[in-house]
Specification:
The complex is a heterodimer of chains A (779) and B (331). Chain A is 33% helix and 22% strand. In chain A, helix 13 crosses helix 23. Chain A folds into 4 domains: 98 residues, Alpha-Beta Plaits (2-Layer Sandwich); 171 residues, DHBP synthase (Alpha-Beta Complex), CATH 3.90.870; 126 residues, Nucleotidyltransferase, domain 5, CATH 3.30.420; 215 residues, ATPase, nucleotide binding domain (Nucleotidyltransferase, domain 5, 2-Layer Sandwich), CATH 3.30.420.40. Chain A starts with 11 loop residues before the first strand and ends with a helix. Chain A has 23 helices and 29 strands. Chain A has 779 residues and is of the alpha/beta class. The relative contact order of chain B is 0.18. By secondary structure, chain B is of the alpha+beta class. In chain B, strands 9-11-8-12-10-13-14 form a 7-stranded mixed β-sheet. Chain B has a 5-stranded mixed β-sheet with strand order 1-2-7-5-6. Chain B folds into 2 domains: 110 residues, 60s Ribosomal Protein L30, Chain: A, CATH 3.30.1330.10; 158 residues, PurM-like C-terminal domain (Phosphoribosyl-aminoimidazole Synthetase, Chain A, domain 2, Alpha-Beta Complex), CATH 3.90.650.10. Chain B has 8 helices and 14 strands. Chain B is globular. In chain B, helix 2 packs parallel to helix 3. The chains are: A alpha/beta (779), B alpha+beta (331). At the A-B interface, helix 11, strand 21, helix 14 and helix 17 of A face helix 7 and strand 14 of B. The complex binds fe (iii) ion, magnesium ion and zinc ion (2 copies). The site of fe (iii) ion has 8 residues of chain A, from helix 13 and strand 21. Chain A: This is Carbamoyltransferase.
């Protein structure tokens, strides 16, 4: 402390440091306004990832200043910490006023936060549609409260010259706003106007246009039923008229995506209400600054949306405009628009203009682009509302790469490289975990390249230099092989389902112990077999397998994943023998005859002889089998399709559950024997019991069996709350029934909110586990 | 030990156990793994040795005897050599029927005669029941390089054309179907045959023949990955032109096998300079064993060691070494 001098004339000078998400969110202008209002002298600047201020005035004024920094921050800011220190009062000249200074880079290394992209704010939106405003209908308007961030930032600290907007020198009018601390656009780094900012362009084989003309050409094409590639915030999107069967079918054919639901863009909440039934939670999600695709119950035929938009499911993904361009487009077309990632199935979303022409050329009739470069790829996020909070299905634009906290810090910086599908990676420094945006299927060469690029970009931006790599046990994941290039002493392997449930526990700040329930597709077990229906007694560092689903052969390995019909025969002919009577051969024959002769015969032979039939204790595969037995799907074109069909079929029915059994295996692990469930399904189906009723009764049986496994583990001493994770919990009915049953048994149930329960959350879970393990090894 | 299928696990076994023991102190200096070695001190002579174990001993299109000749002749040929002589060592399990042994040996002899290579020495041991599985054969071959040919897995270069001498997937599928008595696989016959004449036919191309490989265990995927790794290049192939006979494709589909991972015994993949590709194809097609030769891809710019398949729908999939078992990567 500066001793008696600090109190001279009752005037003090404080050093105020604010960390968290404080850059790119209008924090410095906010500090300026606050300080000026309180009559303080001093300055504020961005330093690396945080904000540093020097303020001088009365102690009361300074205390108020600090309180407001903490409590009244702008809406997009997340204040993690405010640290205060004394300065020599002479450091700030009395009466010098308050200034916003240039950013400085080189400080001590710390985790730097990358601000996320935010939807158009109310003020900017009003200007967008105000004919008197100079930014009327300007597709790139933004301010300190809104606009592109993570996708345009090339380096930190966050300043215009370190974004892709550096190529657009400000005009006099914009420069004045940028420099005026009283203006909403004061230091709005991506600030732009029609005179100085980016410009739209339209390209089709027939015509090229610029500016407003380009928009008009795109609107006309969409009204005419064309597929238009639109350069969005974090990548190209494919857009078409969602009310046109022909347009939607054309997009499906060209994108080679036969069944997976498309998201629908509508201009506002009123339009969303015409499509879907929205609760308060759904409205809040739709209108949030992240503007995620929100999965909501569709109104069905009356919605006006073509049946091909979301076949096989009663849920439709809806999103509101995330950028001024999307506002203009959706209002001008005046119809709901299909809005889906600009890629071919499995590839990363396209961000480069030339690449878009090449890759999307066969899909799109025209391209609505512009000259603002996308630096970091970021797909649209996908969320849904549950009874007790949001469930993130895909964490990307608007959420990534905002950091999350780990309950146990890592003693060394690390990177966790995730799984294979729905790939993400997570960077960790101390207790801060930065999850990179969703990338897709690593088996795709473009996705693998996108991973390398995103890893390089994000580790540099956040200034995290990983010393340890964390990976899955599956030797075939390309992420595991990427990790294998690191020296053996710097690799940590984490079991897939431990990572799943650890992700949930870590997000809730739980170091353990806890009971983890992973209902999942497939993941590599620590015994070399495939797992996927697991009850683990854990903490973050380790686990013990306490319960599981019975195993069944996957006839033809990956082929069985694409063909639920194979999986059903796998269960009916080769499920683990736990003492239940086998399925009635006549019923099996009758069912198998529906699969096509060649396939049924082949599956019988490979199951009998164990040829290319790895066994799995998977919940996801059990859902596949049930969907096929009910005749809902024998083949799938996307992951989870059979389970989606089963959930949709079940509707709101609450019939008696099908039978189920728990058996204690020789090794002491409790096992759910699904054979009675499946044989009852087979018989019910043969007896003409309505499919919805059977589908609902199946869900209940699986939920009861799962809860039963947990209750047995708890009865035998497993402590703590129950963490639910794994891709199957995207099935809201299953989630609801399992958690309801467990809560009914007096257990605390946790579900991932910001971190996806599917494989998109695996990297975060791996990071949490590795941090705990390394922390324990390092005293 | 699950290291048998010629994939990632067998590569690991080789890297971590076998090679360090046999080439002490030279862990960094060992060159690429080739099918056969050039004799130290005489770069015209090539030597290889191979152990043959196959169940069952007889399969559609061949048997272990013919395989023991073809496999060794082909390993020599992949270094650009013509076979000079073979030696054969038999380990026979007590109880093997003499008629079966006789049939194998007759086939072996016929295959050697057909390949034009003498069997100059041999050895036979009979072991107790259970100490071997019917019959193991170890064949050693010496060959002489065709003047001008010095292909190596490390010699592929950007711009090279990737040529395949014939259809893939038959051998592994045929053996599996008889071993497991899979009634739904029919009309699939092993492609086992010698390839040294095909290689000799390429002699006029000389140093433009950069790399040759016969995609046996681990299939075409393994061969391409080895060449991509050892030559530090990216290899791209095109699914649309990949020759997979219809019965093989149907069987693989039902079995859940990837034809790229299935073993072959009668085709080779050649990396040749772009300008020699058309001529190489012409030369290969002039012989019956190369009648269906096609260009399947090329060496492109990209991460070294990566093999990419352009699929029927235009996606670019990374082609990986097969795992020991076909473990799905899908969650
Ligand atoms: Fe998973
Ligand atoms: Mg060989
Ligand atoms: Zn704004
Ligand atoms: Zn301007």
């Amino acid at each position: 402390m500066a001793g008696d001098r600090a109190a001279v004339g009752g005037r003090e000078a404080w050093r105020v440091e604010v960390s968290g998400t404080v850059q790119g969110v209008g924090f410095r202008p906010f500090v300026y306004r606050t300080a000026t209002a309180l009559g303080l002298d001093g300055w504020v600047r961005n330093v690396d990832g945080h904000v540093l201020a020097a303020a001088a005035g009365t102690p009361g004024g300074l205390r108020e200043f600090v309180a407001r920094c903490r409590d009244q921050a702008p809406p997009l800011a997340v204040v993690a910490e405010v640290t205060v220190g004394q300065l020599d009062p002479g450091a700030v000249v009395p009466g010098s006023g308050f200034a916003v200074l240039d950013s400085v880079g080189a400080g001590e290394p710390s985790v730097r936060e990358v601000p996320v992209d935010a939807a158009v704010c109310a003020e900017c939106l009003r200007e967008l549609f105000d004919p008197a405003d100079r930014r009327h209908r300007y597709p790139f308007t933004n301010c300190t409260a809104c606009g592109p961030r993570a996708t345009v930032i090339t380096d930190l600290p966050y300043d215009r010259e370190r974004t892709t907007m550096r190529d657009f020198p400000l005009c006099a009018a914009c420069a004045a706003q940028y420099a005026d601390p009283q203006d909403r656009r004061f230091h709005a780094e991506p600030l732009a106007c029609p005179d100085c900012g980016p410009r739209l362009s339209w390209w089709s084989p027939a015509s090229t246009r610029g500016g407003e003309e380009a928009l008009r050409a795109a609107v006309r094409a969409l009204i005419d039923g064309a597929v238009v590639a639109v350069k969005g915030v974090g990548g190209y999107q494919l857009v078409c008229d969602a009310t046109s069967d022909r347009a939607v079918a054309g997009l499906r054919r060209r994108k080679r995506r036969p069944d997976k639901p498309f998201a629908v863009l509508v201009p506002d909440l009123d339009a969303a209400l015409r499509l879907a039934r929205l609760g308060d939670a759904e409205r809040a999600l739709l209108a949030s600054a992240a503007r995620p695709v929100t999965l909501v119950p569709a109104r069905g035929r009356s919605s006006g949306v073509a049946a091909g938009v979301h076949p096989g499911t009663g849920r439709v993904g809806v999103l509101l405009p995330a950028s001024p361009l999307h506002h203009l487009l959706s209002r001008d077309v005046g119809r709901p628009l299909v809005c889906t990632s600009g890629n071919l199935a499995g590839e990363p979303i396209v961000i480069d203009d030339a690449e878009a022409r090449e890759r999307l050329g066969p899909v799109a009739d025209g391209f609505l682009g512009h000259d603002r470069a996308i630096h970091s790829r970021c797909d649209d996020s996908v969320v849904c509302a549950t009874d007790r909070g949001v469930l993130t299905v895909r964490r990307a634009r608007g959420y990534a790469p905002a950091p999350l906290r780990l309950p146990l810090p890592s003693p060394v910086p690390l990177v966790a490289v995730g799984a294979q599908l729905k790939h993400t990676f997570t960077l960790v420094s101390g207790d801060r975990a930065v999850i990179g945006p969703h990338l897709g299927d690593l088996q795709d060469a473009g996705t693998a390249d996108a991973f390398e690029r995103a890893y390089g970009q994000l580790s540099r931006l956040c200034r995290i230099d990983p010393q340890v790599v964390v990976h899955d046990l599956h030797p075939g994941y390309l992420s595991t092989q990427w990790a294998a290039r690191w020296p053996a002493g710097r690799r940590v392997a984490v079991q897939h389902h431990h990572a799943h449930v650890a992700a949930c526990a870590a997000e809730h700040g739980l170091p353990g112990p806890f009971v983890g329930v992973a209902l999942d597709g497939l993941g590599f077990g620590d015994d070399g077999t495939l797992w996927g229906g697991e009850v683990l007694v854990c903490d973050l560092a380790g686990y013990r397998r306490a319960g599981r689903f019975a195993t069944a052969p996957l006839p033809g390995g990956a082929a069985a994943v694409r063909a639920p019909g194979r999986m059903a025969l796998g269960y009916l002919l080769g499920a683990e023998d736990l003492g239940s009577p086998a399925a009635d051969p006549a019923l099996v024959d009758a069912y198998a005859s529906g699969l096509g002769d060649g396939e049924a015969r082949a599956v019988r032979e490979v199951v009998e002889r164990g040829v290319n039939c790895p066994r799995a204790s998977s919940a996801g595969r059990l859902f596949d089998a049930a969907a096929s037995i009910l005749g809902l799907r024998h083949r799938v074109s996307y992951e989870g399709q059979a389970a989606v069909a089963l959930e949709a079929a079940a509707g709101d029915l609450r019939p008696e559950p099908l039978p189920w059994r728990l058996v204690r295996a020789a090794d002491g692990v409790w096992v759910y024997d699904p054979l009675p469930t499946l044989t009852a399904l087979l018989r019910g189906s043969a007896d003409g019991v309505p499919v919805p009723c059977l589908a609902a009764a199946f869900h209940s049986a699986v939920a009861l069996a799962t809860a039963g496994l947990v209750e047995r583990a708890v009865a035998e001493g497993a402590p703590g709350p129950v963490c639910l994770s794994g891709g199957c919990f995207q099935n809201l009915r299953l989630l609801d029934e399992v958690s309801g049953r467990l809560r009914g048994a007096g257990l605390r149930v946790l579900v991932g909110r910001a971190v996806p329960p599917n494989d998109g959350g695996v990297s975060f879970g791996q990071a949490a586990v590795a941090a705990a393990r390394l922390g324990r090894e390092t005293p | 030990l699950g290291h048998g299928a010629g994939g990632r696990l067998s590569a690991e076994l080789l890297d971590t156990l076998v090679l360090p023991a046999l080439t002490p102190g030279s862990t960094t200096a060992t060159g690429p793994l080739e099918d056969a070695a050039v004799l130290p001190g005489d770069d015209g002579l090539v030597l290889t040795t191979d152990g043959f174990v196959v169940s069952p001993l007889f399969f559609p299109g061949g048997d272990i005897g013919a395989l023991a000749v073809h496999g060794t002749v082909n390993d020599l040929a992949m270094r650009g050599a013509q076979p000079l002589a073979l030696t054969v060592a038999l380990v026979v399990e007590e109880g093997l029927r003499l008629s079966e042994l006789g049939a194998v040996l007759a086939s072996l002899g016929a295959a050697a005669r057909d390949a034009g290579v003498p069997v100059v020495a041999g050895d036979t041991k009979v072991v107790n029941r259970g100490q071997a599985d019917k019959l193991f054969i170890t064949t050693t071959g010496v060959g002489r390089r065709v003047a001008g040919l010095s292909p190596s897995a490390a010699h592929a270069r950007p711009g090279d054309a990737v040529l395949l001498s014939g259809p893939i997937g038959a051998h592994g599928t045929a053996v599996l179907s008889v071993r497991e008595n899979l009634g739904f696989v029919s009309d699939v016959v092993s492609d086992t045959r010698p390839l040294h004449r095909l290689v000799r036919e390429l002699a006029p191309l000389g140093a433009d023949v950069h790399a040759l490989r016969d995609p046996t265990r681990g299939g075409l995927a393994a061969s391409l990955n080895e060449i991509a790794r050892d030559s530090r290049v990216q290899v791209e192939i095109d699914e649309r032109v990949l020759p997979v006979p219809a019965p093989v494709a149907a069987a693989c589909d039902l079995l859940g096998l990837d034809p790229l991972h299935v073993a072959n015994e009668g085709c080779l993949v050649a990396f040749v300079g772009r300008d020699s590709a058309a001529r190489a194809l012409r030369l290969m097609r002039s012989l019956p064993e190369g009648a269906h030769a096609v260009r399947i891809g090329e060496v492109t710019e990209g991460p070294p060691g990566r093999v990419v398949l352009r699929t029927l729908v235009g996606a670019r999939r990374i082609v990986d070494l097969p795992l020991g078992e076909q473990l799905p990567r899908i969650c």
